[in-house]
């Protein structure tokens, strides 16, 4: 019956199976098992019943086994059966066991001969069995019967493959002796997933039904059609014996007598029969289990380590304990505050690689979008001169002015300063929107407690709105301060002697490169090459483009003098964002083109190019007084008035450049102080107090059903993994190991047509473990066998093949 260590090992693995069932399917561990594979009426059920010594499997015509049956045999002093789906209920009447199998099968598959891959778990305790774990699978069929689906063959093969493709599954390939062994579907499927034969054991049934004068001696001796693990012959009860209620014990005695009295088998009687098959399976299963348990242990330990931290937190958490609720609330809020701050500081655990987020988006608002909004409000040149002209003349009234009036300068400057309020308020709106978006992104970490999440979101959002209101008041105050006093003594304000030296806008930088990137010139006609992408380089003096980013072949260099830009509406089918540059003096900007339309791939890229062009001094197109963009400037007939307009125009430009620099500098600082830093400080220091002030701590910490289920699942899985590791720790390593037999030539087994004709329905596991096996030539000579001949004809032929070592 095997050594003591072996007898103790398999029950421990059965305990391990039960422990892992509490961890659910997500563990993904495939315990060592023996899968019984064969065609319909091959004798699989009889082999299993001989193991148990009882009639307990359903019988009938056609497909009877329609769900996998995981059968655990345990040696015990008393005899009873129990199902995993009927915990606590013991079956002593094996007719009831048969009925329960039929009922459980119908529960999932109905009565229409359909199949299901969900297994039935049956454990049988008996003093007449060895410790084995077997899987009885549906018999292989080729033709659907009755109302079976047309693809029943492939459904069964898929189910079988899902079990036997696992590397730690031993395959018991059952073939009747009165059929053609070379065409055995069981052996073909086994070879598909086990081409080296390391996991396949051949079982020959119905040896007593072979024609008189024929035998399977050479097959059982593994000399003809060899397998690496060889064959074991058994004799089952006939249908007549079953109908006559022949006792299995009597059948086993008859089997022993058959082998001892048969002239072809009596010399190997100790290596055939159901008892020897039991011992062989037990020993090989034990070896397999012992070899694969180290990998199981590592897998379990890695899963346990991944769950440890979460399980410790959940184990300490008690929903009904006020102290634990308070502690959990404190930890969650503190952790959320840290995560919220990390989003703006750029030090979060997860770095976004697809889009800008958090602090990066606000940084872009500070340095790209807000400066662009400021430049867009700059008054059009013609409109500015017209307003200065009217201001000077209205101040002089009926008199003729000899000097440039200061009041005209102050009136124009104040008007320009007042216009800053719109972009500044829009700036606040953009930052506020980003703050609220960040709150929504981070608040999902509190989704386990819906009430806490909603209250936190409400309190923080209200705080953002409150700080936004304060920031608006402060910005309005800053603009009012600038309006209160026009400081013409500012050190950067230009004096009269340097009016003629006033240069371009403060955005203008030196000759260094401002930006590089790909742009598409989209308004070039098809006859001239069509729209094409070029590598553009923008400096403070020019806009150049090259054939590619190696910058070797320059296509053109466009000076920036008198250039402006304007938006271009996207076409109906266009996915690009377009802007245009043109010359204000109506000159061609490139060859015979009055303007160039440049296309970007995204709105962010478009805004970035516009901001870069502003730095280079290329401003957006302004609407003139007549609203059409082509109005002519008013001609000033009074030369003295023209000089005064020019003087005030330059003074306004000089002073407003100071104001623009001040606003660009102060606005980000003001928003950072009054909004972002204030909100972060509120979250870290006052949010918790406001949550406590609600007086609903128990309601805040009420778990969502999803979180409660997740917590229970984690704790259950953690306990199951610990129990499984404990079971593994009890396994003795003193078991005896039988060496694997040497390889044999198994090319006589042709690949299953299933792997060639049904790859569409094959599972990933099948493809991963069973690549198509190339067809091998059939050997010729004295041992050559026609693939159409049956096993009886095979066995009756003389053979000169040498005995293959077992």
Automatic annotation (TrEMBL):
<dbReference type="GO" id="GO:0031623">
    <property type="term" value="P:receptor internalization"/>
</dbReference>
<feature type="domain" description="GED">
    <location>
        <begin position="645"/>
        <end position="736"/>
    </location>
</feature>
<feature type="region of interest" description="Disordered">
    <location>
        <begin position="764"/>
        <end position="806"/>
    </location>
</feature>
<dbReference type="GO" id="GO:0005737">
    <property type="term" value="C:cytoplasm"/>
</dbReference>
<feature type="domain" description="Dynamin-type G">
    <location>
        <begin position="28"/>
        <end position="294"/>
    </location>
</feature>
<dbReference type="Pfam" id="PF02212">
    <property type="entry name" value="GED"/>
</dbReference>
<dbReference type="InterPro" id="IPR000375">
    <property type="entry name" value="Dynamin_stalk"/>
</dbReference>
<dbReference type="Pfam" id="PF00169">
    <property type="entry name" value="PH"/>
</dbReference>
<dbReference type="GO" id="GO:0005525">
    <property type="term" value="F:GTP binding"/>
</dbReference>
<dbReference type="InterPro" id="IPR020850">
    <property type="entry name" value="GED_dom"/>
</dbReference>
<keyword id="KW-0493">Microtubule</keyword>
<dbReference type="InterPro" id="IPR030381">
    <property type="entry name" value="G_DYNAMIN_dom"/>
</dbReference>
<keyword id="KW-0378">Hydrolase</keyword>
<feature type="compositionally biased region" description="Polar residues">
    <location>
        <begin position="783"/>
        <end position="799"/>
    </location>
</feature>
<keyword id="KW-0963">Cytoplasm</keyword>
<dbReference type="InterPro" id="IPR022812">
    <property type="entry name" value="Dynamin"/>
</dbReference>
<keyword id="KW-0254">Endocytosis</keyword>
<dbReference type="GO" id="GO:0098793">
    <property type="term" value="C:presynapse"/>
</dbReference>
<dbReference type="GO" id="GO:0008017">
    <property type="term" value="F:microtubule binding"/>
</dbReference>
<dbReference type="GO" id="GO:0016185">
    <property type="term" value="P:synaptic vesicle budding from presynaptic endocytic zone membrane"/>
</dbReference>
<keyword id="KW-0505">Motor protein</keyword>
<dbReference type="InterPro" id="IPR027417">
    <property type="entry name" value="P-loop_NTPase"/>
</dbReference>
<dbReference type="InterPro" id="IPR019762">
    <property type="entry name" value="Dynamin_GTPase_CS"/>
</dbReference>
<dbReference type="InterPro" id="IPR003130">
    <property type="entry name" value="GED"/>
</dbReference>
<comment type="similarity">
    <text>Belongs to the TRAFAC class dynamin-like GTPase superfamily. Dynamin/Fzo/YdjA family.</text>
</comment>
<protein>
    <recommendedName>
        <fullName>Interferon-induced GTP-binding protein Mx</fullName>
        <ecNumber>3.6.5.5</ecNumber>
    </recommendedName>
</protein>
<dbReference type="Pfam" id="PF01031">
    <property type="entry name" value="Dynamin_M"/>
</dbReference>
<dbReference type="InterPro" id="IPR001401">
    <property type="entry name" value="Dynamin_GTPase"/>
</dbReference>
<feature type="domain" description="PH">
    <location>
        <begin position="512"/>
        <end position="618"/>
    </location>
</feature>
<feature type="compositionally biased region" description="Pro residues">
    <location>
        <begin position="771"/>
        <end position="780"/>
    </location>
</feature>
<dbReference type="Pfam" id="PF00350">
    <property type="entry name" value="Dynamin_N"/>
</dbReference>
<dbReference type="InterPro" id="IPR045063">
    <property type="entry name" value="Dynamin_N"/>
</dbReference>
<dbReference type="InterPro" id="IPR011993">
    <property type="entry name" value="PH-like_dom_sf"/>
</dbReference>
<keyword id="KW-0547">Nucleotide-binding</keyword>
<dbReference type="InterPro" id="IPR001849">
    <property type="entry name" value="PH_domain"/>
</dbReference>
<keyword id="KW-0342">GTP-binding</keyword>
<dbReference type="GO" id="GO:0003924">
    <property type="term" value="F:GTPase activity"/>
</dbReference>
<dbReference type="GO" id="GO:0005886">
    <property type="term" value="C:plasma membrane"/>
</dbReference>
<dbReference type="GO" id="GO:0005874">
    <property type="term" value="C:microtubule"/>
</dbReference>
């Amino acid at each position: 019956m095997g050594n003591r260590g072996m007898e103790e090992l398999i029950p421990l693995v059965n305990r391990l199976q039960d422990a892992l069932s509490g961890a659910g399917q997500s563990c993904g561990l495939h315990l060592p098992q023996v899968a019984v594979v064969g065609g319909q009426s091959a004798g699989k059920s009889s082999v299993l019943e001989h193991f148990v010594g009882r009639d307990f499997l359903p019988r009938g015509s056609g497909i009877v086994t329609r769900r996998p049956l995981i059968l655990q045999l345990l040696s015990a002093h008393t005899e009873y059966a129990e199902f995993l789906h009927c915990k606590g209920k013991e079956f002593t009447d094996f007719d009831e066991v048969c009925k329960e199998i039929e009922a459980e099968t119908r529960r999932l598959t109905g009565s229409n001969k359909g199949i299901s891959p969900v297994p039935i778990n049956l454990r049988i305790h008996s003093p007449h069995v060895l410790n084995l774990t077997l899987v009885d699978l549906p018999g292989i069929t080729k033709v659907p019967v009755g109302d079976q689906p047309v693809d029943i063959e492939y459904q069964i093969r898929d189910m079988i493959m899902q079990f036997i493709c696992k590397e730690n599954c031993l395959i018991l390939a059952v073939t009747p002796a009165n059929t053609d062994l070379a065409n055995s579907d069981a052996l073909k499927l086994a070879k598909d997933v086990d081409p080296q034969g390391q996991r396949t054991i051949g079982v020959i049934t119905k040896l007593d039904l072979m024609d008189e004068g024929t035998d399977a001696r050479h097959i059982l001796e593994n000399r003809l059609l060899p397998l690496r693990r060889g064959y074991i012959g058994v004799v089952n009860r006939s249908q007549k014996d079953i109908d006559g209620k022949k006792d299995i014990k009597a059948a086993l005695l008859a089997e022993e007598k058959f082998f001892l009295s048969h002239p072809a088998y009596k010399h190997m009687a100790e290596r055939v029969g159901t008892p020897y098959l039991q011992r062989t399976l037990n020993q090989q299963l034990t070896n397999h289990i012992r070899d694969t348990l180290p990998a199981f242990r590592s897998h379990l330990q890695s899963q346990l380590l991944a769950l440890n931290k979460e399980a410790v937190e959940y184990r300490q958490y008690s929903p009904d304990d006020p102290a634990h609720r308070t502690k959990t609330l404190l930890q969650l809020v503190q952790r959320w505050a840290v995560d919220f701050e990390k989003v703006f500081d750029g030090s979060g655990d997860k770095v976004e690689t697809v889009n800008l987020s958090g602090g990066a988006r606000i940084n872009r608002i500070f340095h790209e979008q807000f400066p662009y909004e400021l430049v867009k409000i700059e008054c059009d040149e013609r409109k500015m001169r017209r307003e200065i002209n009217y201001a000077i003349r209205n101040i002089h009234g009926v008199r003729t002015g000899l000097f440039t009036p200061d009041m005209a300068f102050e009136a124009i400057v104040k008007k320009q300063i007042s216009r800053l309020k719109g972009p500044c308020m829009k700036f606040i709106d953009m930052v506020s929107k980003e703050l609220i978006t960040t709150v929504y992104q981070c608040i999902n970490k509190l989704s386990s407690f819906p009430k806490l999440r909603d209250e936190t979101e409400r309190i923080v959002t209200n705080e953002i709105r409150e700080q936004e209101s304060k920031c608006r008041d402060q910005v309005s105050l800053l603009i009012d301060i600038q309006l209160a006093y026009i400081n013409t003594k500012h050190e950067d304000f230009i004096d009269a002697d340097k009016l003629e030296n006033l240069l371009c806008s403060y955005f203008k930088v030196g000759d260094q490169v401002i930006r590089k990137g790909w742009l598409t010139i989209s308004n070039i006609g098809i006859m001239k090459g069509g729209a094409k992408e070029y590598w553009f380089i923008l400096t403070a003096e020019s806009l150049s483009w090259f054939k590619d980013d190696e910058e070797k072949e320059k296509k053109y260099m466009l000076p920036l003098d008198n250039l402006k830009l304007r938006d271009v509406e996207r076409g109906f089918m266009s996915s690009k964002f377009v802007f245009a540059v043109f010359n204000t003096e109506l000159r061609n900007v490139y060859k015979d083109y009055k303007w160039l339309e440049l296309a970007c791939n995204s709105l962010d890229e478009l805004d970035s190019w516009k901001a870069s062009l502003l730095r280079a001094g290329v401003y957006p197109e302004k609407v003139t007084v007549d609203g059409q963009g082509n109005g002519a400037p008013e001609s000033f007939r009074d030369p003295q008035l023209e000089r005064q307009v020019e003087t005030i125009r330059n003074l306004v430009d000089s002073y407003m450049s100071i104001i623009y620099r001040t606003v660009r500098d102060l606005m980000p600082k003001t928003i950072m102080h009054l909004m972002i830093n204030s909100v972060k400080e509120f979250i870290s220091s006052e949010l918790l107090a406001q949550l406590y002030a609600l007086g609903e701590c128990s309601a805040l910490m009420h778990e969502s059903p999803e979180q409660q289920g997740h917590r229970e699942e984690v704790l259950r899985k953690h306990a199951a993994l610990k129990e499984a590791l404990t079971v593994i720790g009890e396994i003795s390593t003193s078991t005896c190991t039988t060496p694997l037999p040497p390889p044999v030539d198994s090319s006589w087994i042709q690949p299953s047509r299933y792997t060639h004709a049904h790859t569409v329905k094959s599972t990933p596991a099948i493809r991963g473990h069973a690549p198509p096996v190339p067809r091998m030539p059939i050997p010729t000579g004295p041992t050559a066998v026609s693939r159409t001949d049956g096993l009886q004809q095979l066995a009756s032929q003389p053979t000169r093949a040498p005995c293959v070592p077992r």
